[in-house]
Amino acid sequence: MKKLLWQFHRRVILRMVTFWYARWGEKSFLVLLAGVIGAITALMAALLHIMVVHLEKLSIFLSIAPKELHQYWWLLILLVLPMIGLLLSYLIQRYMGGARYAKSLSPLVLNLSRKRTSIPFSEMFTHAISSALSVGMGGSAGLEAPTVLTGAAIGSNVSGVLHVDRKKRSLLLGCGAAAGISAIFGSPIAGVLFAAEVLLPEFSVSALIPMILSSALAAVISRMIVGVHQFIPASNEPWETYAVPCYFLLGIVCALVGVYVIKSAYFLSDKLKERFRNPWRRLFAGGALLCVLLLIFPPLRGQGYLYIGKLFSKEGLGELVEASPLLGWIGSDAAILTLIVLAAIFVKVIVSVLTVDSGGDGGIFAPSMFIGAFTGFAFAQLVNMSGLFELHVFNFVAVGMCGVFTAVMRAPLTGIFLIAEVTGSYILLVPLMIVSSVSHFTANFFEPYSIYRKALVEGNLISDNREQSILRRQAVRLNIDKSFHALKQDAPFRFVAELIETCKSEVFPVLAEDGRLLGLVHKNKIITAMLNPDVCNYLLVYDIMDEPPTVLTPDDDLARALASMDLFKADVLPVCNSQTREFLGFVSKEAVFSKYRDMVREEDGL
Question: Which residues form the domain of 519?
Fold first, then answer.
């Protein structure tokens, strides 16, 4: 069967691809593939949505049915459901996802920055199943990151099957990611902007045309399957000029909350992995704490969009209180609502980290929007209580979502259009622009990197500097000059003097019998010694040999090579095996610059 499929692929599919290339060209083929990727991603996003809906219905049924037996048994079911979801999700990841399974977008950002476009076939469906189990059973996370990863995997595998040039595959991965956002939110503009701002910032505007088509088709297919509905039912009023200072102030507040989200997420994740190195212990320890927190604050369960919608209606505030029966002992609805709002702002990120790092699957999109909505609600209520202004609370709920999202993701355009599309708040475009820009600007003072790029930049894996980002894609092993003349340390100087007359090299390696690098001899030092003929006749290579300022390994990238050359003011550096110190050749600054120019030309030609 496998042989028949391979023959069909080679004789039929690849011939069709060749015919299309010859008849209509590469650009039209990429646009066609973008549409196909968008359609497949939309189907997977719709399937994920349906799975979550049915799992949520199952969870409700399981928590209601025990009431007939005992009035408190439903609390036990509500307590253990998230743990069941985490366990099932972890099993899917462990036995179907493979060793490279990633639950964050950070590895995708890294791979795209280095033009690595190979994603395992299994990730076309494992993220959907795993995240559906986590979130559908009550885990606190979003479905957007799994959908983006699913779309990227679809783009990678479709382009791989059709033998698309590797230089173009990054674009098709971006098409899948944009389609994922578009399908899950019904927001095609935000999908394209997210791919452009977060995943592929180096692409030109003209290169985004396939993403636009992919995102649009995904929105159409998603609407056909899921139906037409407002993602978050919102009720907004036209913005007032007297409230503009409050929007500026809200942008600062949202920036601080966003920085809290980033720092607390990394801190808790590191502590959890450090304290419980065994994944099974981490699953049950983190899952247990998660279950307790979700039992106390049920509005923190799942994606949270249902409770964001309740903030847009006065009746919904009472439903927030009713949804937290264990807080009934407080006695005051106002105090309960205050506690819920505080938990939504400060505890939501904790339960989200516990969900994902304990074994579940999900993203930070939904938690960021959830936290932002409650931040905007709390801000407007406090201002109204002060009597200084009378603000439209619903407007600040919508704008707060944009502010925290921008601070966490560092994607201001995505935040503006995402919130405008999912809430229908187009009349708030100006306040959205104010809060988004102020939040982005302020957050950079306290945390310069987004939640996806922070670990990568601090780990020196990527850089915001375009030159370094490009050079990091190329390994030293691919740029080694092996045309060298080796010397022995006990060779007489006259041998070296004769060598420079026929060799154009500026530096010569001094090697031991086993090929280890002992030192370097520079041409200018040889010439200096030749000016004193009375002494040079008694010299050996050892006498004019210098220690290398540093040694590169084949696994280093060209960014590190260039940085080392600048640091030690060297035009050439030796490359040695990291284990045996065997000399392999040289890397020159001229070769690095030449490779950089070639890579820039290739990238700008996309």
Answer: 472-604
